[in-house]
Amino acid sequence: xxxxxxxxxxxxxxxxxxxxxxxxxxxxxxxxxxxxxxxxxxxxxxxxxxxxxxxxxxxxxxxxxxxxxxxxxxxxxxxxxxxxxxxxxxxxxxxxxxxxxxxxxxxxxxxxxxxxxxxxxxxxxxxxxxxxxxxxxxxxxxxxxxxxxxxxxxxxxxxxxxxxxxxxxxxxxxxxxxxxxxxxxxxxxxxxxxxxxxxxxxxxxxxxxxxxxxxxxxxxxxxxxxxxxxx
Length: 231
Hints:
The structure is a single chain. With 231 residues, the protein is an alpha/beta fold. The chain has a single domain, classed as Acetylglutamate kinase-like (Carbamate kinase, 3-Layer(aba) Sandwich). It is built from 8 helices and 11 strands. It has helices at residues 10-13, 22-37, 62-86, 108-116, 134-144, 178-183, 191-200, 214-219, and strands at residues 2-7, 41-46, 91-94, 103-104, 120-123, 149-154, 159-160, 172-173, 175-177, 203-208, 226-229. Helix 5 runs parallel beside helix 7 (191-200). The chain is globular and about 50 Å long. The relative contact order is 0.16. The model has no long low-confidence stretch (mean pLDDT 94).
């Protein structure tokens, strides 16, 4: 089974942190490694919130701020590749926006070859264009690696009808469609990513990635997190 895991930049630094937290990074490696050892084919899209915050770039034009964010995802991807390989895993980086020795251009034959050799695919540089979030990039790259599942790795154990951090009476929604999520105004993913999921028939699983073993449980179809399906 092929799956795309969407990680936030803060997954590397800890909430509110900057840079790279060794314990967080070690945890990510263990969770991904357990999935690889079970035979799952893994792609990753990572954000850049551990390096650049939107508020810090608010005085720039959107096109320039987005370009900085895209470059931040490349930096995180190179970091992850090294950490994965130091842990005995194979990893390859794909991006359309940079020319670096460790980064390959997106090529479908190369992606297939990498998956056959059980390499982790790390997709850097978002969609290659400004104005699109890493949510949209995750769905696009999932389609390119022929994955029908995107796991959104969050700090919350699924989708709620309102923010569970602010509202104690928030109710978890285990299963819903993209149309229902949009109608309810739930910010699981941005509208562009939702529309692409509906068009391509891709399912999104929202989990608390930082509960040990949850990623593997989600991939095995166990009852964790929330599942958002095409209509």
